[in-house]
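Morning!

This is the sequence you dropped in the shared folder:
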Amino acid sequence: MKEAIINILKNSSHTFISGQYISDKLGVSRTAIWKYINGLKKEGYNIESASKKGYRLISCPDILTFEEIISLLKTKVIGQNIIHFDSINSTNDKAKKIASYENDGTIIISEEQTLGKGRLGRTWFSSKFKGIYMSIILKPDINTMDVPKITQIAAAAVLTTLLNNNIKAYIKWPNDIIVNNKKVCGILTEMSGEISKVNYVVVGMGINVNCEKEDIPKDLLSKATSLKIEKDREFKRNILVADILNNFENLYTELIECNNIDTSIEICKENSILIGKEVRIINRNRESFGKAVGLNSNGELLVQFKNGEIKPLISGEISVRGMNGYI
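The structure's back. Tokens below.
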């Protein structure tokens, strides 16, 4: 019902529309419409009410609800069910709790996370109303060994969205998006499965969108940034979310229908910040060194070691760094 009322108000081109018209259109009482309108006002919708005129939508809040995203989606599965929170400990944790009974493609999204997390147990800061913190529940009929490919799909989807918004971004294998040599997005893919059967996959994305410098912890300022900091303007978060989900479904469909991620791999290779560079590989506190030379069809980073041997890296517990720091 909320979605229908919002759409009617949005389509009225900022002119007044009577409560009776909305009531007749939706088949509910004017009292019910009045209650919904008041609820929308509490959510941040600026709706003008005038006696004998009705209601007029002045502006919409920058919130990531189903109603503010669904009209922008072109997907068939991804994002057709969106569960929104004002605050949550972790969207990935919530997604894993409900994955067994929620639909494939369900999105868990929150205005903030109090216990956001990244790979290898790291934390992720989440400024309220200033970032995108969401998780996608997937139920693919694939082998468990193919699940890491989904991280590359997610990275390619986010990267494509940023490029479409004139933001020059790069991918730091396997799961970071980099702008101006600083991290702007992290991706965390988790799964539940058996030896060769996937029960569900949860793909979490944390993106610093409209954060100011003072929102970023001081110890992270040297390696973290936001889209607003880099482009000196604010971004509509709901538009970014919809674009990411549209791109994700297009790329994910290739895995499900064709059993490959060729398009995602090409995007990741063309926009890699590591390929062609000397890298430091950290695996359980042990370091080795080599040169990143490409990605294979599974999305594994190919590294050439000093003896000339080229080996693929499987993301797992491995961390890859530049020779002198994060990149």
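Headline: The chain has three domains: 2-59, 66-270, 278-322.

More detail when I'm at my desk.
O.
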